[in-house]
């Protein structure tokens, strides 16, 4: 009997905001090389969503957040790899961003919301749009 269940990948992305600026990292030697994306990564088997957000934020930037608030969910279905992208807002963030994965990220930079870079990581575009529009869900 064939397996009728599909595999979906789950991306956990974090909005880090400071003085009306959004933290983005320039991707390096990974899918989307040269584009700017949110801190984040994949949900691991058995991991809680909030734990994944905290882990990815710490692993990539060295930042600690006291808590996380749900931002939005994007069903990214227009690719050969279906993804659910789940966004969280980091709250009460401590520290300054450091490039903890220089083999995967060139640098972290703060961007004002009204001047985000044109070369955003494609899977994060709709998630960032949702955040700006305060929308919690999109099918893209």
UniProtKB/TrEMBL annotation:
| GO BP | dGTP catabolic process
* Matching InterPro entries: Nudix_hydrolase, NUDIX_hydrolase-like_dom_sf, NUDIX_hydrolase_CS, NUDIX_hydrolase_dom
In alphabetical order, the GO MF annotations are:
8-oxo-7,8-dihydrodeoxyguanosine triphosphate pyrophosphatase activity
Does this entry carry the keyword rRNA-binding?
Answer: no
Q: Which CDD domains match?
A: NUDIX_MTH2_Nudt15
What the entry lists under SUPFAM superfamilies is as follows:
Nudix
Per the UniProt record, one Pfam family is: NUDIX
- According to the UniProt entry, the coiled-coil residues are none
List the record's Gene Ontology CC terms alphabetically. Answer: cytosol
Q: Which domain of life is it from?
A: Bacteria
UniProt keyword annotations, A-Z: Hydrolase
Q: Which residues form the Nudix hydrolase domain?
A: 7-133
UniProt keyword Protein transport present = no
**What family is this protein classified in?**
Belongs to the Nudix hydrolase family.
Protein's recorded name: MutT/nudix family protein
Q: Which organism is it from?
A: Candidatus Uhrbacteria bacterium GW2011_GWF2_46_218
